[in-house]
Amino acid sequence: MRVVIDEDIPASLTPRFRSGGHTVDHVEDLGLKGTHNGVLLAAISGSADILVTGDANLGHQQNLKKFGLAIILVRPPRLVVDQIIPLIPDVVAAFSTAKRNSVTTIGRPK
Q1: Cα–Cα distances in Å, from 65 out to 26, 39, 52, 72, 100?
Q2: Exposed, middle or buried, 37 (CB in 10 Å: 0-12/13-18/19+)?
Q3: Is residue 13 classed exposed, middle or buried when 0-12, 13-18 and 19+ CB atoms within 10 A define those classes?
Q4: What's the structural domain count of the chain?
Q5: Sign of the dihedral through C-alpha 74, 51, 103, 8
Q6: pLDDT, tens digit (0-9, with 9 covering 90-100), for 34-68
Q7: Is 98 helix (H, G, I), strand (E, B) or coil?
């Protein structure tokens, strides 16, 4: 399974998402940092299975059926390293159950 980490999750955390043989890349490493959501989703569609993001609006702003990706939304109290780290095991566990064309939220609800 190929996973892409969005730019609102610090690139330094990318190795923590790697487990179980999943390929995990950060948008920065793919040369896609600063890419708007629709363009980013189109760029990784077909080559990635999951996008991990902290952008709570992405699922509302984009037609997810168009891209065929599962979106995992990371929702710590604040989107900072020390509050993201405790959620990473749950995010990684969700890789196998996240459904394409929808958003799976890990952390506090909206």
Answers
A1: 22, 15, 17, 15, 8
A2: middle
A3: middle
A4: 1
A5: positive
A6: 999 999 999 999 999 999 999 998 888 888 999 99
A7: coil
DSSP conformation letters of 50-66: EEEE--TTHHHHS-GGG
Q: Which amino acid is at 86?
A: P
8 backbone dihedrals φ, ψ, rounded to 5° = -80, -5
Neighbouring CB atoms inside 10 A of 53's CB total 24
Dist CA 5 CA 14 (whole Å) = 7
Q: Give the tokens for residue 35.
A: 């890419």
> 33 is in which domain, residue-wise?
2-107
Q: Let me know how many helices (H) and strands (E) the chain has, helices first.
A: 4, 5
Whether the pTM exceeds 0.70: the reply is yes
Look up residue 57 and give its amino acid. N
Through-space distance between the first and last CA atoms of the chain, rounded to whole angstroms? 27
